[in-house]
Amino acid sequence: MEAIHNVFSRMDETAIRSIEAAIHGNVEFQAAIAHAQHTSFQLACKDHTSALGFEISKNQIQVFAQPDSGRKTEFTLFAQSAHWEKVFEAVPQRPFQSYWGMLRLLGTEAGVSVAGDQTAFTSFARVWRLAIDLVRDALHPPSEATVNRSFVEDDELDDDSIIGHYLWIKLAELGKCKVFYETSGSGSQHILFLHTAGADSRQYHSLMMNKTLQQKCKMYAFDLPGHGRSFPGEHQFPAAYSNSEEFYISAIGQMISRLGLHHVIVSGASMGGQVCLAVALRAEQLGVSGVIPCEACDYIPEQRAQKIYSLTGDESILNPERVCGMIAPTAPAIYKRLNWWIYSSQATKIFPGDLKFYFEGWDGRERMSQIDTKACPVYMLTGEYDYSCSPNMSRETAAKIQGAVFEEMEGLGHFPMSEDPKRFLPYFFRALEHIQGVQHAT
Fold it and tell me: Which positions fall inside the AB hydrolase-1 domain (predicted)?
């Protein structure tokens, strides 16, 4: 049965030419296809014959209606008509801001699947993702805040007050490790930031450059061994890395000790948020006086992500494409690209090594009630667009921790501190004030 309402069947020739012109005029898309070989793909409805096709050849793109053109394409991105309607809303809701999110959460059972050449699908992941985004932009021109190509004011100060250092720690699994860390601020409150899976602490530069935070806090952030600017451990070999709760806690504990941190508040997102909960369980042992877990919960089953993370291809393209779908569609374009760049620049198999902790390697389901929030206050934050760890997952975890606070963040996704720092900061300040209030009361 054909759907009554279908976004593709409503596109006339004028609309298609407008989409084509928008894609041709986009600098980022042109960069993505500059060295690309010929490819073709279509966005198609599982419950309708209409589709939108794209053909790329020699830095040129043609957009055409299907099945009217009769052209064959290398691969097809399928979804139900109702799904595509949600994808192409002016501001789509979770998980429709990303086809990766649809694959992950909805899957073949709901009619979301990829047909055709799977190698072409992964090889051109950046191209088809940009095409979808640009179709939306052509239908609904984005706001100036979304297309903004400027960093927030504090980020652009010539006197960058973040200072980088190296120190050595020793981890049972990796041996001696030369770890990069950076500091900023001169306040009395110590904060330690933890990066996400397969990334590094550049994600926290906007927070560490914020003048108000610098006055209140002394901030630290480090890259795990083999990540970002840290050296690999002496026994760490390419493609052999695997993160775990004990390994991660050991690294955090040694950094706290080596840096001489006192009454430190630990904050991280995603994998770094999950381990904040593990830190809270060991707060007295580690000398931690509060945690701010972002995009975290007590457990995420691996099967929630197998559909997309089992795909193989160029890690420098696939990794950022798969994770950046969790960014809010309203985030400033320049910060979206910054997150993409950070994920594209990591060493081989670092990201899947971290996912071994993020998925199932971290299981706090039976331990959350053991956290003492009088000794270690917990303030959890999760963005509305996070489809990996949804706000409800975080909310349910917080409910297991007596005294914990949870707040859902509007207009933010999986990387709140780095995708839209201006929007994130008020939430972070509230969390910081709550923890310090509990500390002073006790």
Answer: 191-424
Burial of 195 per CB tally in 10 Å (0-12, 13-18, 19+): buried
| Tens digit of each residue's pLDDT (9 = 90 or more) over 254-270 | 999 999 999 999 999 99
Q: What is the CA radius of gyration of the chain?
A: 22
Fold of 153-441: Rossmann fold (3.40.50)
The domain made up of 13-141 has a fold known as: Nonspecific Lipid-transfer Protein; Chain A (3.30.1050)
CA distances from 367 to 270, 281, 289 (A): 19, 8, 19
Q: Report which of 127, 122, 275 is spatially closest to residue 192, judged by C-alpha positions.
A: 275
* pLDDT tens figures, 354-391: 999 999 899 999 999 999 999 999 999 999 999 999 99
H helices of 260-390, where? Answer: 271-281, 283-286, 306-309, 315-324, 333-344, 350-356
Give the whole-angstrom CA distance, residue 222 versus residue 215. 20
Which residue has better confidence, 148 or 76?
A: 76
List alpha helices for 148-243, DSSP H.
205-208, 211-216
Q: How far apart are CA 373 and CA 174, in angstroms?
A: 33
